[in-house]
Specification:
alpha/beta, two-stranded antiparallel ribbon, 45% helix, globular
């Protein structure tokens, strides 16, 4: 197993440091959340941000899009939104007497799907092909999406009025799920002092461009993972499927996402190879939203993160990279 190119790692470290610093200037007191969002960007994945209203979910998405210098479109998901409002569709051109394809807002590098679970399941499913294959198919014609392509979706907890649960198939397409949480008292005070009179995004400038981000995604994929680390990922997935508290465990796609995210995590921290520690650090973020607990586990107050913590503690690492 060869190590990642040192020069590429230095460039990655410089890019991630700039992105994290820029985003942290507007997302107060959420360094771990910012780092996780940058990790998903470098891993070429999609991000689901779930929490109560008003804690900065959309701000995080906009800060990531702005700092990365990529093209960005925002889709406000509402109950009356149609799939064609997301993907685009064929519109009749009276002058040319033919139908022509009009791209929808999904044709951007970063797509902010705001309050995704307020739209109907039919409209939510419009993103399935986009997220999994980086393309849109309309009337038997396929249109490729830009690279890099990332969906950053925000959603309110299901207990909130007017929300629809995301289908398992769509949740599985998100590489990671984050929860913003309330800021600390110090961070909230800084928020009031610095941003109460102006839009915090107004002062944020791009610290990278589309080409840099695309190159960083390619470089991240080259960070090597040993056979032992890959086996460790498989062992974790298998354990989720066999656990007594779980009725739907992690999918093979979840394993691919976990390894890709671990590569990005290693690159961000300047490591030339993926270590089991990188995998373990990302297990709750990458696998937590994919598990479906049994009715008995839910009734007893179990949380997927607690189940995953026990699985990680019980799963040995055979060998080191």
């Amino acid at each position: 197993m060869t190590e990642a190119d040192p020069g590429a790692l230095r460039e990655l470290a410089g890019l991630t440091a700039r992105l994290r610093a820029a985003m942290s200037s507007v997302v107060e007191g959420k360094e771990s959340v910012v780092t996780a969002a940058v990790t998903v960007l470098l891993a070429g994945g999609h991000l689901l941000v779930e929490d109560v209203p008003g804690v900065g979910k959309t701000l995080l998405a906009k800060a990531l899009a702005t700092a990365s210098g990529c093209s960005v479109n925002r889709i406000q998901f509402t109950p009356d939104l149609f799939p064609s409002d997301v993907t685009g569709g064929n519109v009749y051109d009276a002058e040319r007497r033919e139908f022509t394809f009009t791209p929808g807002p999904v044709f951007a590098n970063v797509v902010i799907a705001d309050e995704i679970n307020r739209a109907s399941p039919k409209t939510q499913s419009a993103l399935l092909e986009c997220m999994a294959e980086g393309q849109v198919t309309v009337d038997a014609h396929t249109y490729g999406l830009a690279e890099p392509f990332m969906v950053v979706a925000t959603q309110n907890p299901l207990e909130m009025e007017g929300t629809y649960p995301l289908p398992e198939a769509q949740r599985d397409r998100f590489m990671a799920r984050l929860s913003m949480g309330y800021p600390s008292a110090r961070a909230e005070l800084a928020l009031l002092e610095n941003h109460s009179g102006s839009d915090p995004l107004a002062q944020l400038s791009a610290v990278a461009d589309r080409a840099e981000v695309a190159q960083a995604v390619r470089a991240t994929r080259a960070v090597p993972a040993s056979a032992a680390v890959r086996q460790y990922v498989v062992d974790l997935l298998t354990a989720t499927r066999a656990h007594a508290a779980v009725v739907l465990g992690a999918s093979p796609r979840a394993g691919l996402h976990l390894l890709r995210a671990a590569r990005a995590h290693a690159a961000i921290h300047g490591d030339a190879v993926v270590l089991p520690d990188h995998v373990q650090a990302l297990v709750p973020t990458v696998l937590g939203h994919r598990l479906v607990l049994s009715p008995a586990a839910r009734a007893s107050g179990e949380h997927p993160d607690e189940v995953l913590a026990r699985i990680v503690a019980a799963t040995p690492v055979h060998g080191r990279p």
